[in-house]
Amino acid sequence: MDSLYVLEHGACLRKDGDCLKIMRGSRVLDTIPASGLHQLTLAGRTSLSGAVLDFLITNRIDTVFLTPGGRFRARLLLDEPGHVTLRQRQYMRLGDEGFRLDLARRIVHGKLENQARMLLRRGSRSRDLRLREAGVQVKALQQKLDRAEDLDQVRGIEGYGARIYYGVFGLLLHGNGFSFTGRNRRPPRDPVNALLSFVYTLFTNEILNSIRRVGLDPYLGALHEVAHGRPSLACDLVEEWRIFGERLVLTLVNRRVVRPGDFVTGPAEEGDDGKGVRPVLMKPAVCRALIAAWRRQLDQSLFYPPSGEKTSLRWIMHSQCRRLAESLQPDGTPYRPFAVSR
Hints:
Elements (H helix, E strand, L loop, with lengths): L2 E4 L5 E5 L2 E6 L2 E7 L5 E5 L3 E2 L1 H9 L3 E5 L5 E5 L7 H11 L2 H30 L2 H18 L4 H19 L21 H24 L17 H6 L4 H13 L8 E3 L3 E2 L5 E2 L2 E3 L1 H16 L1 E4 L4 E4 H15 L15
Parallel strand pairs: 1-5, 2-6, 5-7
Antiparallel strand pairs: 2-3, 3-4, 7-8, 9-12, 10-11, 13-14
Helix pairs in contact: 3-4, 3-5, 4-5, 6-8, 6-9, 6-10, 8-9
């Protein structure tokens, strides 16, 4: 097993020989082999025994802590070996305003392209003029992006594209009892936003792992500014993969894999505006179903133009991080985000 997700509220993770045991009180909820584990994700209030913590540190296992709603809280940060030369190159290249602006434009261009393609295709399939019009509007923003003179303009175009896209996203939902009136987060306040936030976190963690394996500094990006505790480069590179998370959420809702009764309202917490907000949370069974569906999605084969072959989505994501590292070299090919072909 390469990754483990512990979602049970109030569980404790203990090590027993070559196995990890998920406990609640004196009851064993599950027993999992510890060998081969590369990532551990803990959602909610899960505790670790000293032996488990020592095992995670010794074996350099990436460990992520999430809130019950899937919001990132912290990561067990381990020293990275080597890669000094590559990181020096990253700092130098991203310190160049022209290079950074070009990379930010490319990242947003790829995101807009994927959003426009989905809206145009689904609008044509359903014959919904509103979706097609929104797709055309998003597509047109790419021309403005090419004329953007600074990062603030790039971010403004990206934000405007997001408003158009999420403004019609609810038209793509066909599941009974679900609605979507706009994107809200930190915390999410309805079931669809809860699903989106959680799956975005899954993709961001996967990209973050890839960045660390390549040897780049995940906290210095191009589009996202440096901020305390934010892996800005991972936030940059996840933009081209958000479309896959959105497609996954639409599949789960429209095929009625998830239902409104699969969500609960949690205790109030402070929102982005500083006011108390009661978040909408997925029940553990829904979290497990979402993670299982996401992992199946990562194993799906897609055509990857740089290699000319079909390969898994997970491998393509990792390859894109390597291609970004290559683009930082003096003679590197400019980075090109992955475009959805279907």
